[in-house]
Design brief:
Helix content: 55-70%
CATH class of the largest domain: Alpha Beta
Structural class: alpha+beta
Radius of gyration: 27 Å
Number of domains: 2
Strand content: 5-15%
Low-confidence stretches: none
Number of helices: 11
Mean pLDDT: 90
Number of strands: 4
CATH architecture of the largest domain: 3-Layer(aba) Sandwich
Largest sheet: 4 strands, mixed
Distance between the termini: 30 Å
CATH topology of the largest domain: D-Maltodextrin-Binding Protein, domain 2
Strand order of the largest sheet: 1-2-4-3
Length: 261
C-alpha cells in the first residue's frame, strides 16, 4: 500500500480531473443557496476523505459528487442576471429540440460508423501495446519452453497470466492486496535489488527471471556470474540461472546483451 499507485493519495502536481471536480464542488456549495440533506453531506464528506486517502476511490467520489454539482450549478445559474439566464434556457431548449428530432438514432448510428471506420482503416485493433507489455519476450518464452520457478515484474504478471498461463505461473501480478506481505515484501526487496535480494531468489528457488530491462534487478543480475541473459529487448529481459537445467539455453544464447531504449 506504500508503493502501489492506486492505494496512494492523488498527486496534485499532475493534471488531475479529480482536483478540479473537488474544487468546483466546494465552490458550488459555497455559492449556491440550496442546502444538502444529511445523507448527501455524509456521502460527500466520506467519499471526499476516501478519494484524498487513495486514488482508487476517486471514481466513487465522482459518482456521488456529479449530481450534487449539477444541482448546485443550476441553483447558481438561477441567481445570475435574467439576460444570461435567458440565453442559457434558450440554448438548452434548442439542444433539446435537436435531440428530439433525431429521435435517439443519430448518436448510435454515428458511433457504429466511427468504430467501423476505425476497424477498417486499422486504427482500432485488438492487441496489446508491445511498447508497454512484454509481448515479444512472452513469444520467446512460448518458443523456448523455459522450466523452473519464475520471478517476474508484477506489471508484467497480468499480461503473462493472459498470454502464457498455465504453462508459466507468475510469482507476482497486479493483485498485490491478494498476495499480501508474505510475497509483497520479498518481491519488493528483489525487484529493487535491496540488500538481501539474492536471498529472496534462493529462498523461493527461482530458476529464471523476466524483468524490465532498465530495472534495478536487471542491472544487478547482469553483474552476477551465476546468471545470464538469454533474451533482451527494450521492454523486458530474461535471465536464467547457470545450472544443469538451463544448460541448453545457456549454450544457445551465449552472448545476449541488455537492449536499452
Amino acid at each position: 500500500m506504500d508503493r502501489v499507485a492506486e492505494f496512494l493519495s492523488p498527486n496534485f502536481h499532475e493534471v488531475l480531473p479529480f482536483k478540479y471536480m473537488l474544487l468546483a464542488t466546494i465552490a458550488a456549495l459555497a455559492l449556491a443557496r440550496s442546502s444538502l440533506n444529511v445523507i448527501e453531506v455524509g456521502l460527500l464528506a466520506l467519499l471526499s476523505y476516501m478519494a484524498l486517502y487513495s486514488v482508487r476511490h476517486v471514481s466513487l467520489f465522482a459518482i456521488i459528487a456529479a449530481p450534487i454539482l449539477l444541482r448546485t450549478g443550476e441553483n447558481i445559474l438561477s441567481q445570475v442576471s435574467n439576460r444570461w439566464l435567458q440565453f442559457y434556457r434558450q440554448r438548452n431548449t434548442n439542444l433539446n429540440a435537436i435531440e428530439a428530432r433525431v429521435d435517439g438514432h443519430l448518436w448510435p448510428s454515428l458511433t457504429i460508423l466511427l468504430i467501423g471506420g476505425l476497424c477498417l482503416t486499422g486504427h482500432l485493433r485488438y492487441e496489446f501495446n508491445d511498447k508497454v507489455f512484454p509481448v515479444a519476450a512472452v513469444h520467446f518464452l512460448q518458443r523456448e519452453k523455459i522450466s523452473g520457478n519464475m520471478f517476474n515484474n508484477d506489471e508484467f504478471g497480468d499480461y503473462m497470466i493472459f498470454a502464457a498461463w498455465p504453462e508459466y505461473r507468475v510469482f507476482m501480478d497486479g493483485r498485490s492486496d491478494m498476495y499480501g506481505e508474505k510475497y509483497g515484501n520479498p518481491y519488493l526487496k528483489a525487484a529493487h535489488a535491496f540488500p538481501g535480494w539474492k536471498d529472496v531468489l534462493t529462498q523461493f528457488r527461482i530458476d529464471w527471471v523476466i524483468f524490465g530491462t532498465e530495472s534495478a534487478l536487471a542491472a544487478a543480475l547482469s553483474e552476477q556470474s551465476d546468471w545470464q541473459p538469454i533474451y533482451s529487448d527494450t521492454i523486458a529481459t530474461v535471465f536464467v540461472r547457470k545450472n544443469a537445467m538451463n544448460e541448453l539455453l545457456l549454450a544457445r544464447y551465449p552472448a545476449v546483451k541488455l537492449k536499452f531504449q
